[in-house]
Design a protein that fits this description.
The complex is a heterodimer of chains A (about 160) and B (about 500).
Chain A (H helix, E strand, L loop, with lengths): L4 H22 L15 H19 L15 H21 L1 H15 L5 H6 L2 H14 L7 H5 L5
Chain B lengths: L1 H11 L2 H19 L5 H12 L4 H26 L8 H12 L3 H36 L2 H18 L5 H15 L2 E2 L6 E2 L13 H19 L4 H10 L9 H23 L4 H16 L2 H6 L5 H17 L1 H7 L5 H12 L8 H4 L1 H22 L3 H4 L7 H20 L2 H19 L5 H23 L6 H4 L1 H27 L1
Antiparallel strand pairs in B: 1-2
Helix pairs in contact in B: 1-18, 2-4, 2-18, 3-4, 3-16, 4-5, 4-6, 4-14, 4-16, 4-18, 5-6, 5-14, 6-11, 6-14, 6-15, 6-18, 7-8, 7-12, 7-22, 7-24, 8-22, 9-20, 9-21, 11-12, 11-14, 12-14, 20-21
The chains are: A mainly alpha (about 160), B mainly alpha (about 500).
């Protein structure tokens, strides 16, 4: 049996809207605001119903423009690796600092995407990030916390 | 008025002020190109520098930065599909596909000329209509704004793509839902934060736009790497193409520019509306006006589709100065920053500004035009060099897009939660893009969410909870009627085509 993925997404959106609506009803408002014509939960409640309405319609009505995605041709592995690298980058940036994590993020991304020109990979990671960091930190005066550079005495 | 223009010209054409416009345009373009650093950041960075100048010179520098940043934003929209500036999101709809077809140079040239024309025309409108337009903008009430936003959202959903109205409406609702996260603007009650402090201030616009456009675009390119059709596209990405605009394209632009500049300017004049709504509305209107053959090209690299939002966003930039200078009400976030700078100079904006400080009022208007000319002179010759970004191999370009996106978010909050949130939204957006769920309606809804709730709140409170405000005022009723007509026309056309098929 062929499952129409657009319908599955619509069903997920329907469930999400129902959850959103339930959460909207749970928003605590001030006692004096409870019966006001408009309070903090009014707009979200309308949105919840709108979500149920449109996703419900999409579920019920026939879908003449069925989208067929060729999953076999999609490069899931590399995409997943890149997402994991980005998550690791997010997890380490505050502890290690901007310069080292960003440079490593770029270097490893080039590597996993199949690049093997080591000199170019290096130039477009460590010196590139250093120059960009100088632009942000030195020229535009945007503070960038970097414990690693501070520990080796490069940054004050 | 002639006297005012002469005062403005005398002030704007001093060597120091011309230099300021040039510097402003140049740095604005560079900063605007960096995703995450929009005109608001660029102008905010200029405030400490301008305190040493006289008010007219300071504002001239900031106006130059503003235009430069908007043009820079268009460049990253066209080349990388990473609109760092909300006003240039609509530019990427046709600008990026055009770049993908190997016409990056042409897309940038169309954007440069449209920006120039839009800015020039709106500077002329501003010159003649600034005093009277402030009265018009004051006549708009909350119900009219609410209706205008419904119209904007419906129009973008209806015109997003063939047979996708329901999908687009789902994305509109999702955008509004994302905008509702965080503190309620009036009562400060937190909503949908699930006790997470990082969500108290809501989700940043730059985060959503980076996740749904730049990051998901990068992920989609990797995902479809082995897809023969997208591989062909990637080869053409390295071709710059000519920057010359042929006669047929010029003819299209001649028709698009005047109407888009009018809509852009008028929307820009409305306090709180600004370049984003103007560019989306101009795009929607243009798609509605053109013939069926041209309509098919929208979203695939249409000249009209690129020229309309580019003209409108620049026209709206000039328009947004009207409420700021004449009423003291900023027309956009950027002019709000400029208003703060103006107050810092000890200048009180308002209806009496062009009587008490005519040199400031008129020199800003005159320097807008000078800024446009300088921007064109500066950017057109640089297009071949700017477009070289596309020649960077995908193995390098994709990590660099991810790097600019993540850095754009990180420098705003210095918080890794935002990075995780961005990755999460990007993954969902990538998956939805595979199944043709359009992203532009989500972005517009996200931008308008707060304003829409605010205007609905005011309208309902003023009418004591009654929905009669929707038809009480003629203006509101007319805007809503237009919305209904768009929906009916869309349904009729879809059904008629199906029957015909």
């Amino acid at each position: 049996m062929n499952i129409n993925t657009t319908k599955v997404i619509s069903l997920l959106f329907f469930i999400f809207s129902a959850f959103y609506l339930y959460t909207a009803y749970q928003i605590q408002v001030f006692a004096f605001d409870e019966n006001a014509p408009f309070n903090a939960r009014t707009f979200p409640i309308y949105l919840g119903y709108a979500g149920l309405f449109f996703s419900g319609l999409k579920l019920i009505l026939p879908d003449p423009n069925t989208i067929k995605v060729q999953h076999k041709t999609l490069e899931y592995k590399k995409t997943l690796i890149l997402i994991i690298i980005a998550i690791i980058y997010g997890a380490t940036i505050l502890k290690v600092g901007y310069f080292f994590t960003t440079s490593l993020f770029l270097f490893s991304s080039y590597y996993f995407l199949g690049e093997r020109r080591w000199v170019l990979m290096f130039l477009l990671s460590f010196p590139f990030v250093a120059a960009f960091m100088y632009l942000l930190h030195g020229v535009l005066d945007i503070y960038l916390r970097d414990p690693f550079l501070q520990s080796i005495g490069v940054m004050g | 008025m002639i006297e005012g223009i002469l005062i403005g010209l005398t002030t704007a054409l001093t060597l120091q002020n011309i230099l300021m416009v040039m510097l402003g345009c140049f740095f604005g373009t560079i900063i605007g190109m960096l995703p995450g650093l929009g005109p608001m950041t660029a102008i905010a960075l200029m405030i400490p520098i301008t305190y040493g100048f006289d008010p007219a010179t300071g504002l001239i520098l900031m106006a130059g930065v503003y235009y430069g940043a908007v043009f820079g934003g268009s460049t990253s929209s066209i080349l990388l599909n990473a609109p760092g500036v909300p006003g240039t999101v609509a530019t990427s709809f046709d600008g990026y596909p055009m770049a993908q077809q190997g016409k990056a140079g042409k897309a940038l040239a169309i954007a440069a000329w449209s920006s120039f024309a839009g800015g020039t025309l709106s500077a002329i409108y501003l010159l003649f209509m600034a005093p009277s337009l402030s009265k018009v903008s004051l006549s708009f009430r909350s119900p009219d704004y609410f209706a205008l936003m419904i119209l904007g959202l419906t129009a973008i959903a209806a015109f997003s793509s063939k047979g996708q109205f329901l999908k687009a409406m789902m994305m509109v609702v999702l955008g509004l839902m994302l905008a509702s996260v965080g503190q309620d603007s009036l009562s400060d009650i937190t909503r949908f934060t699930f006790n997470n402090m990082n969500l108290t201030d809501g989700i940043s616009f730059v985060l959503v736009v980076m996740a749904t456009f730049a990051m998901s675009e990068a992920l989609t390119i990797i995902l479809k790497r082995n897809d023969p059709t997208s591989a062909a596209k990637q080869v053409s990405l390295t071709e710059l193409g000519s920057i010359k605009i042929n006669k047929e394209e010029r003819t299209k632009m001649y028709k698009t520019i005047p109407r888009s500049s009018v809509i852009g300017f008028l929307i820009g004049v409305l306090p709180g509306a600004g370049a984003t709504i103007a560019s989306f509305l101009a795009y929607g209107m243009e798609r509605n006006i053109v013939n069926d053959e041209e309509k098919e090209k929208f979203g695939k690299g249409s000249v009209n589709g690129l020229s309309a939002p580019e003209t409108a966003n620049n026209a709206a930039c000039s328009g947004s100065f009207v409420p700021m200078l004449t009423l003291g009400i900023p027309g956009s976030g950027t002019t709000a920053v400029m208003l703060g700078a103006l107050l810092g100079f000890g200048v009180q904006p308002g209806p009496r500004l062009y009587m008490t400080n005519p040199e400031i009022f008129w020199s800003i208007i005159m320097s807008m035009y000078i800024g446009m000319v300088i921007l064109l002179i500066l950017n057109l010759p640089l297009i071949p060099y700017i477009a070289r970004i596309l020649a960077v191999p995908k193995n390098y370009l994709i990590p660099l897009i991810l790097f600019f996106s993540i850095t754009g978010i990180y420098v705003m909050s210095f918080n890794n939660f935002d990075i995780y949130l961005m990755i999460g939204i990007a993954v969902v957006a990538t998956f939805m893009r595979l199944y043709d769920f359009p992203m532009p309606p989500l972005i517009l809804a996200f931008v308008l969410g707060g304003l829409m709730e605010e205007n609905l709140r005011r309208s309902l409170l003023l009418s004591n909870g009654s929905w009669e405000f929707l038809w009480d005022r003629t203006l509101t009723a007319c805007i809503l009627l237009t919305t209904i007509l768009i929906v009916v026309w869309h349904i009729y056309k879809t059904m008629f085509k199906k029957t015909k098929g």
